[in-house]
């Protein structure tokens, strides 16, 4: 466990970066320090691996006061990942990953072999092992940065805005990868970000920092969204917190409606009423796109199906949450969200009005439980 008690940090120029921080971080948890720029997240994180020493209070890791622990020894058990990966530019990927194990006395050969395993673990092709950092994409560099921190298998991982420099699509991939890795590794992770969406997606617990380095709230993401502790937190999580909160709600009882499905082979003889849409599916029943009567006509006139149909919106995978269900319904060109099972086969259609009705019903039940009725 990592514990902050009454921790403050005043820099020599008088800046108070952290003020009276009390926080207990459980072993094996994923804790996100989130808040706007300059509110002390990075300074707080760096007090865990002794890159910064507190001016008041104490930070302990597994009961040992960090200030009284040798920095080199301490950092053996704490991996550190920064934006861009922080890779050594003149070393290959495999040697970057093997650096710390070699410094600790592992043979270069054994360290390289282990590095290849870690590379695979973070979803990178082993053919990249011989490349230099400049020959990788931003997302790949970031994955190597994670691999390097994991190579020494530390129980604690500190990650400082690791995914901020990559584009949103790659960022979402890295976030999923991180979720998968954490489910497998169960490290104690402390992750700094200013992005509330990223925080909500990754964290088991969010520590929301505010002005003057003061902690505003330390709670599960769902609680931060549904019951912000201060006006500052309410403002920071934003007006769409209700929408974000949907990702914590079960969509198990959203009704699935029948939807009209067409295989490509059926298009030549199919008819659709005006305003009616059909979902074009593959032989395996996977969705391809929506088509209407005008689309059918144009296919019959020789246009490829892919061009004559409207690409579907996002998909709702049965068993996931209300946010996915609502996203699927409102992003679909036909107004009907496409639900698929785990294998990607169409399971039915979702109506946005049903999602909203289910949300209202869940809230009513919660209110009743709260009021003891
Ligand atoms: N070495 C230093 N000397 C003086 N002031 C510092 C030093 N390091 C950080 N600060 C100040 O301390 C405050 C907190 O900085 P910190 O980097 O911890 O914030 P942050 O929340 O991580 O912000 P960001 O996301 O922008 O990095 C800021 O006002 C910053 O300017």
From TrEMBL:
<dbReference type="InterPro" id="IPR003593">
    <property type="entry name" value="AAA+_ATPase"/>
</dbReference>
<protein>
    <submittedName>
        <fullName>ATP-binding cassette domain-containing protein</fullName>
    </submittedName>
</protein>
<comment type="similarity">
    <text>Belongs to the ABC transporter superfamily.</text>
</comment>
<dbReference type="Pfam" id="PF00005">
    <property type="entry name" value="ABC_tran"/>
</dbReference>
<keyword id="KW-0547">Nucleotide-binding</keyword>
<dbReference type="GO" id="GO:0005524">
    <property type="term" value="F:ATP binding"/>
</dbReference>
<dbReference type="InterPro" id="IPR003439">
    <property type="entry name" value="ABC_transporter-like_ATP-bd"/>
</dbReference>
<dbReference type="InterPro" id="IPR027417">
    <property type="entry name" value="P-loop_NTPase"/>
</dbReference>
<dbReference type="InterPro" id="IPR017871">
    <property type="entry name" value="ABC_transporter-like_CS"/>
</dbReference>
<keyword id="KW-0067">ATP-binding</keyword>
<feature type="domain" description="ABC transporter">
    <location>
        <begin position="2"/>
        <end position="237"/>
    </location>
</feature>
<keyword id="KW-0813">Transport</keyword>
């Amino acid at each position: 466990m990592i514990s902050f008690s009454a921790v403050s940090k005043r820099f020599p120029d008088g800046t108070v970066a952290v003020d009276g921080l009390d926080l207990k971080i459980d072993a094996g948890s994923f804790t996100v320090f989130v808040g706007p720029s300059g509110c002390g997240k990075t300074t707080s994180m760096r007090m865990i691996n002794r890159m910064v020493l507190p001016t008041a209070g104490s930070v302990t890791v597994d009961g040992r006061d960090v200030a009284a622990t040798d920095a080199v020894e301490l950092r053996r058990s704490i991996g550190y990942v920064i934006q861009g990966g922080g890779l050594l530019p003149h070393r290959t990927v495999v040697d970057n990953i093997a650096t710390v194990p070699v410094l600790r006395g592992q043979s270069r050969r054994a360290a390289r072999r282990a590095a290849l395993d870690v590379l695979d673990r973070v979803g990178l092709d082993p053919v990249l092992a011989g490349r230099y950092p400049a020959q990788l994409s931003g997302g790949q560099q970031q994955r190597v940065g994670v691999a390097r921190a994991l190579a020494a298998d530390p129980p604690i991982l500190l990650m400082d805005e690791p995914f901020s420099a990559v584009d949103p699509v790659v960022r979402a991939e890295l976030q999923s990868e991180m979720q998968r890795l954490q489910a497998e590794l169960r490290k104690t992770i402390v992750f700094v970000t200013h992005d509330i969406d990223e925080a909500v997606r990754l964290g088991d617990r969010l520590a929301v920092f505010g002005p003057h380095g003061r902690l505003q709230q330390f709670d599960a993401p769902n609680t931060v969204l549904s019951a912000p502790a201060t006006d500052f937190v309410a403002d920071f999580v934003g007006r769409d917190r209700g929408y974000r909160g949907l990702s914590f709600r079960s969509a198990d009882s959203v009704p699935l409606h029948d939807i009209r499905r067409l295989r490509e082979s059926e298009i030549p003889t199919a008819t659709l009423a005006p305003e009616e849409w059909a979902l074009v599916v593959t032989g395996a029943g996977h969705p391809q796109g929506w088509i209407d009567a005008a689309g059918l006509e144009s296919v019959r006139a020789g246009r490829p199906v892919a061009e004559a149909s409207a690409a579907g919106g996002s998909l709702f995978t049965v068993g996931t949450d209300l946010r996915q269900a609502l996203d699927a319904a409102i992003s679909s060109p036909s107004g009907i969200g496409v639900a698929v099972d785990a294998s990607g086969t169409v399971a039915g259609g979702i109506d946005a009005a049903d999602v909203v009705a289910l949300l209202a019903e869940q809230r009513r039940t919660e209110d009743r439980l709260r009021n003891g009725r």
